[in-house]
Predict the structure of Uridine diphosphate glucose pyrophosphatase NUDT14.
Amino acid sequence: MEDLKDVFISPLPDSPYVKPFRFNYTQNGKQKSWDLLEVHDSVAIIVFNITRKVMVFVKQFRPAIYYNCISPEDRKSTTIDTSKYPASLGIALEMCAGIIDKDKSVEHIAQEEVLEECGYSVPLSGLHRITSYRSGVGVQGALQTFFYCEVTDAMKTEQGGGVDDELIEVVEKTIPEIEEMVNSPGPIPSPPSCLFALMWFLYNKADKFRKTYEHHCAECKKGKMVFVK
Ligand SMILES: Nc1ncnc2c1ncn2[C@@H]1O[C@H](COP(=O)(O)OP(=O)(O)O[C@H]2O[C@H](CO)[C@@H](O)[C@H](O)[C@H]2O)[C@@H](O)[C@H]1O
Ligand SMILES: [Mg+2]
């Protein structure tokens, strides 16, 4: 994932992923315009492994993050010096997510992404639609639909890691590690949607699993309840 070379910037040809255009309008009698990017709507899924009480993340190289680490001066050079700018600068930790580029329901797209990226076979009934929100409101405003699913080790039927030329590493974090992540002073190498997902999980679900830890501990300590972080 971190073997990066031959990095250079070029003008955008016709792209199936992003379409830049100018949006013109008159508001309160004043003529205005806004420069926009048309992108696909998407899904994102919180995957929580209840066998081992860990959250499943995907780690991947994100060119957009990498590019924004390069100084404006160095962006002008014909090739980017990868010894000065190693790939690690662009590696993000995210929830499993994918664009809606097929004529399928959001539930089916979410199910596919969990299998392709994380390796878990989840029944459609195991995917709970939580909410949807607008991402990149400055220039995109695309809709992301957000799901929660619980998986077990037995549901891990494939390796994960993405399809075609995707290079994705599956990473697991415990509840205390998630808490540490959201309390970090940053910069956190994750999009706001991922941080929202973590806060949603901590607020709505984490207690259920913390209680299991406490109970476990109480058993071990012969009835003495100990809060385990
Ligand atoms: N701009 C681009 N240039 C070149 N190739 C591209 C491309 N966009 C997509 N692709 C190709 O299409 C594949 C799409 O991957 P996914 O469907 O998993 O979406 P991704 O995880 O990138 O974004 C998901 O996760 C992020 C983070 O949450 C959300 O912002 C996003 O809306 C959501 O779909 C990429 O692996 C790549 O091959
Ligand atoms: Mg993805």
Notes: The radius of gyration is 21 Å. The chain has a mean pLDDT of 93.
